[in-house]
Amino acid sequence: MAGNGRLKKILTIENKILLPFVFICVLAVTVLFFALYRFGRTGIVEEMSGIFYRQRYVVLGGIALLLIIVETAVLVSYNIAGPIRKLSEICSGISEAPALTEEENRELSGYAERSDEVGQLAEAFQKMIGSLGDYTRELAFVKNLNENIVENLPLGIVVTDREGKVIFRNGPAAALLYHTEETDASGRNLQDIVDGMLARNDVFPEPARLTDPAGQVRDLEFGSWRLYGHDKTEEQGVLITIDDVTYKRRMEEKASMDEKLAYTGQLAAEMAHEAKNPLAGIRAGLQVTERRLTEDRDRRLCEEMIREVDRVNRLIENMVDLARRRETEKTMVHLNSLFDEVLLLYLKIAENKGILLVSHLSGELWVIADEQELKQILINLINNSLKALTAGGTIRLEADRRPSGVQMAVRDDGPGMDEEKVRKVLSGEEGGLGLSIVRRLAENNGGTFCLESAPGQGTTAAVIFRRGEQERKEGIIS
Description:
Blueprint: H1 2-10, H2 13-42, H3 45-54, H4 56-96, H5 102-112, H6 117-151, E1 156-161, E2 166-169, H7 171-178, H8 190-200, E3 208-211, E4 217-228, E5 235-244, H9 246-292, H10 296-323, E6 331-334, H11 335-352, E7 355-361, E8 366-369, H12 371-388, E9 393-402, E10 405-412, H13 419-427, H14 434-444, E11 447-453, E12 459-466, H15 469-474
Parallel strand pairs: 7-9
Antiparallel strand pairs: 1-2, 1-5, 3-4, 4-5, 6-8, 9-10, 10-12, 11-12
Helix pairs in contact: 2-4, 4-6, 5-6, 9-10, 11-12, 12-14
């Protein structure tokens, strides 16, 4: 290979033109000296000298013609063949790096100034290089644009070749695949699920629900497309899309819950009118009967029946509250005063059950909300805690500042609930309608309700009132 390179450097277009003329000249001189040498040995030098002298003009003309030929060869070589060779070198360089150096640009501009065919060729080269540069820049722009689009898509993109080897994945896909600790019900992580889709050539992949060790759930949906070449016949690979639809699922669940609440409210409005009057009559009848009974056992039974009627009546009142569409009247609510008022209502009740009821607020706290609805939230949450603490305990009313606003919470050290029971309580499957009312009232006042509980660790029900942008500017929320 090295020998071929040296040979190419020697056999340039200039040398290919010069070498035949040089060879002819050397051959002519050699023949001349050889003839003189031979003639000198045979003693006819004097005769040849006479001949040369008589034909001296012819000889001189031949020598002059030979020099002209050599000069013409040199002229052709370095004025025509040289530029052609240089243009060839520039063209070869462009095939490796489509850009001219400053020196090459100067040389090409110099050739383009010539008025002959070399100048025309150099000018054509300049136009070609300009067009190639424009095309290269446009191609680079399109490439960067496509890469940015794919990289910033809200979908994870994974591309494999025909052998199933991953040849590309964008940032969202890499981020999702990074969470190897998230697994589905079968113990598979996302990479295992994608590998299975590729192995089975799934056309309509099933969605997946992954859970991390902390219990956080992620819902994913997938798409699968075959990639083909220009002829649309030969498969080149597979494109997999991964869509994180966790937020969408939560919104669908919330919409479903809202529909249930709306139906419950409608049912409550109808039920209230039908049930409250008969219950009032039953209670009045039981009270009259109780006063006429003489046996203690019968009186206790009657009292228990009255309590059960009262419990049903409270349930109906909760349903009526849920159905009621009272106009919310937001004002500046002083949480410290509100907590004192609620404590005054429930201190005696808690004391009778052997429960300690305390409150703690981090300074003077204000929120923009409907005071009556906040009071109803606290009453419902305290009632739930009183039901949970059957053998004494502590209920704490707390409020403190958070970076995003103010949190109001009711904590108890009762038996707590597991995740399944928390889900049922929040969905209204267990625990009555108290928490449904709390959730609705919290949303009416721009708050977010959350419930945290664990077996043996008590329960915390909290409402977070987030600081609005306008409120933050005006300093309304402390």
